[in-house]
Request: fold
Amino acid sequence: MRKKLVASLLAATLAIGTLSGCGQSNNSTSSASGTSSTESGPVDTSEEVNLTMYLYGSEGVANQDVLDELNKILKEDINATLEIKYIDYSDTSTKYPLLWASGESFDMAYSSSTAAVTYQSLARQDVLVDITDMLDTYAPTLKEKLDSEAWDSMKVGGQIYGVPSTYSEFTAYGFVSRDDLMEKYGITSISSIDDMEAYMDAALEDGWTPLNGNSNLGMDMYRMFIALTSDWIDAPGLPTTGPYLAGSVEDPSEIFHPAFTDEFVDFAKRMKEWSDKGYWSKDVLSASQDDKDNFYNGLSASYISHQPDWTGSYGTQQEKLPGVETEFYCFPEENGKIIRKMGCENCTVISKNSKYPERCLMMIEKLMTDERCYDLFQYGIEGRQYEIVDGTVVQPEGYDAEKDAAGFAGWALRTDELNLPMATEDPRRYTLNDEWKEVAIDNPYVGFSFDSTNVSAELSAIANVDASLGLQILLGKTTQDPEEAVEQYRSQLEAAGIDKALEEVNSQYQTFLEENAANTESADATSSSSSSAE
Amino acid sequence: MVKPHVHLKNFRRELVRKRVLFLMIAPTILFFIIFCYIPMPGAYVAFVDYNMSKGIFGSNFVGFKNFEFLIRNGDLWRITKNTLLYNLAFLVLGNIVQVILAIMISEIGNRWFKKISQSVILLPYFISMVIVGYFAYNLFSYDHGFINSLLTSFGLEKHDFYSDTGIWKYIIVMFKIWSGTGYGMIVYLATITGLDREIYEAAALDGASPFQKIRYLTLPLLKPTVILLILFGLGGILKGSFDLFYNLIGTNSVLYPETDIIDTYVFRSLVGQYNFSQGAAVGFYQSIFGLVFVLAVNAIVKRVEPDSALF
Reply:
């Protein structure tokens, strides 16, 4: 009898647990949507609001302290407080899209044209607040401070749905080598692919694996190929996880797939040669550690990455390879193809589910233009997380990572104007940036967002071909002769529907150009200087 | 033929009489209702061009367009075949190993040794496949792998495992059995423990040897459990063990011809795109295939061995 009682109690508790679990979540959503605001009029900040923002990354131990500090200012100035929610880096490809699909109620989020679900597709699916007409009223300073090209890059169908970052970054890829090894091998500088080969050959003889990476190396090789080949630049259309499309600076309106060119055959042959020589390990396709990690652990003689990544690893370099200096051979530089980063690659958007879009915009303005807020958000509390020595952000003396670690992945809110160089960054970042600012060209595809709905089946099929034979070609791992492999790759791409995809991209881009031309004509009266499409 | 209201009346009487039992099963039923039956209409997402702001039922209906990418490259048959064969191998070999080990463990007299070996066999079940992937890499890597180091020290030629397509089907099945045996074995062990001891005593009196007892008592008595578990397993026959394949094979496309299953194929196709509908289309295909398969096999079982059929 007693046993029976215990059993039924247990069952009851379980049942209640299940029920109440549901009830709770129901309650919270209903109460959240129940308090709808009826705020109108220009800038009414009488009601105190708490706004949530989703960012990548995880919470540092002292993040709340920094936020508390920041909220004091925000509350005083705009009567609003900020709450950050985090999406761990490892979950960005899964949780980030779900965040939008689930209809969760939040206010702001990080967005990017390269995120798992892109800024453009969010805008097109109508889940973002159109801020075009709100800027003048709620964020006049912000509107003025960010240049018009950055705003232009945010346009989807002529409307703006997010606030771009204006932090100058040039994600130009290049080859990172070690000074000490170069000296040992008698190589004074690396400024061409032949120099690279000389360096890697010498390293190979010296017992190194020159590019000890994993399968990601394949796409690095592809980027190198595009950057080093005549005036080709990256073009939209295919996901950048595999061989993507290209256009030329001269005539960007003709987007093509590089695999169908003779240059690609030569590239495939070279990659086969590199692979056979042993520039990367035999089982590179299954290796887990990438070339950059191996480089800083002294297991690879070089690596390939982009400039901000290289300069940003300066701290790691000093810690792990003391006394070693690095050199960077930038691929697109010699052909004059340094491209300005588009604002929409890092931006902040407001969710349609937000009850206070106006206040969100005001908050974004504060975070990007008010120096006190900017420093708190980007660097932390002065004296605890950072100090400024000679205009550089350094870690203070008593910094204890276990107690003081704080930081937000607030890249999307950075601006050139308020940004300070950091001690963990190679100072060459800023000299290079200054140099490149002079020569950088505009991305002809700024503002163009490809709508892939009509060709989604083709894109999935192409992605599969790319991940199989495509990747093998990029790393010279094909079982057959490279020429034959390219031939086969082409026919597989054709079967997957590359022609239809190309046609779709090109016709959409053509429409975009025409619309843009019409817009600039009508805007000429107001003498707008932005003409990103030309 | 019983009239429906009699059924209902019987059911109500049962409900009152065995209320504790019903209460105990309630959480499970609730679980299935909440997590399996209520979301089921959502499978409709496989037939629409999903738009976040319009929702699943508001999006435009597109028919079978979302299934198109599966057939476009003519890969559907290859990956379906691979998935089927792998799962059959897992199911058949897995169950054989589990039954053998369960019988062996149940025959062990030493309590202490019994417990230890049971735990040791179960342990791999709790090891994440990500870790297993690293194990495999450290075993089979060309430059520093354990096996290749061993081969070199014996003066033999190195073997490039990660370019050898043929060998991986054995490696994958081996790892699957290694990781799954302990868990499946427990079910059989429980069944064996629950078997009527008196039959065994009677057999011992008749002079049956331990092997005869296994052959003529344990195995026949285990048969219903084996059939049940295999029938359950068949439902998921088209659902691959994504974590196993992804962590062992990952991006190594050289091995795809023999190691590509539906789940890895779909992952590769859709990972760069944000497309719920195509993903759901594949899930739909797998579920329907599994359902048909279970119904078919169950029908066969019903013919051959009516008592062991599921329904």
Notes: Chain B touches chain A through 50 residues (CB under 8 Å). The first strand of chain B starts at residue 48 and ends at 49.
